[in-house]
Each structure stands twice: as C-alpha cells, then as structure tokens.
Amino acid sequence: ALQLLRHGRIRRGRLGVTGQNVSLTRRLVRLHGLEQETGVLVLSVQEASPADQANVLPGDVIVRFDDAPVSGVDDLHRLLIEDQIGVPSTVAVLRGAELKQLPIVPVED
C-alpha cells in the first residue's frame, strides 16, 4: 500500500512472457526434487524482453524464480515485486525433461 501512495500505482517486475498454469508429471517432480506439482507453461515470449534475452522459449515450464517455487501465474506475479526490478535473478524452466537455470533481469512493467 505504501507503493500505491508513493507512485500512485504498484510497481512490478516483468519478464515478458504470457503463460498458463499447467500440471507437471510426477516423474519430473521427483527427478528434479520440485516442491510443487504445477508450473507456468510459457505460451509466448515478447521480443527483446528479459525472457527473450534469457532464452526462455515457448513450451518451457517455469518452476522457480530465484529460490522460490512457482506453482502458477499468481506465484510469478507475487514474486515479481518492485525489489526485483533490474536485479539479476534466475528463472528455472523445464525444457522437456531437462531443468535449466536461466539468468534473467526483470524490467519495470
């Protein structure tokens, strides 16, 4: 609420993806020791966005942002708070059966 008073709006970080919540297979959850059974399926990546520069691809499933599990779009929004804007971070994606750690720097939305 302090942000709202200071800036007249809530400042958020943005990665530049559109996504939807998706279930993960039990095998992948076990294989990578994930805490959750859902993630964010990347439907599209905005050109020249942080996600594009980090090599996030459509079809990737975001499962972690820095050290926090991402079980859905709401988690991702909650994690992309003002403090993350411009801060080098890591996004973990499942690409097929492989878990990739991609360096990313959120920009202001």
Task: Walk me through this protein's architecture.
With 109 residues, the protein is of the alpha+beta class. Helices cover 22% and strands 37% of the residues. The protein is built from four helices and eight strands. The strands form two sheets. Strands 2, 3, 4, 5, 6 and 7 form a six-stranded antiparallel beta sheet that branches. A two-stranded antiparallel ribbon has the order 1-8. Strand 6 (89-95) and strand 7 (98-104) form a beta hairpin. The longest helix is centred in the first third of the chain and has 7 residues, at 26-32. The radius of gyration is 14 Å and the shape is globular. The mean pLDDT is 91.
Defining traits:
single chain; 109 residues; alpha+beta; six-stranded antiparallel sheet; two-stranded antiparallel sheet; 22% helix; globular
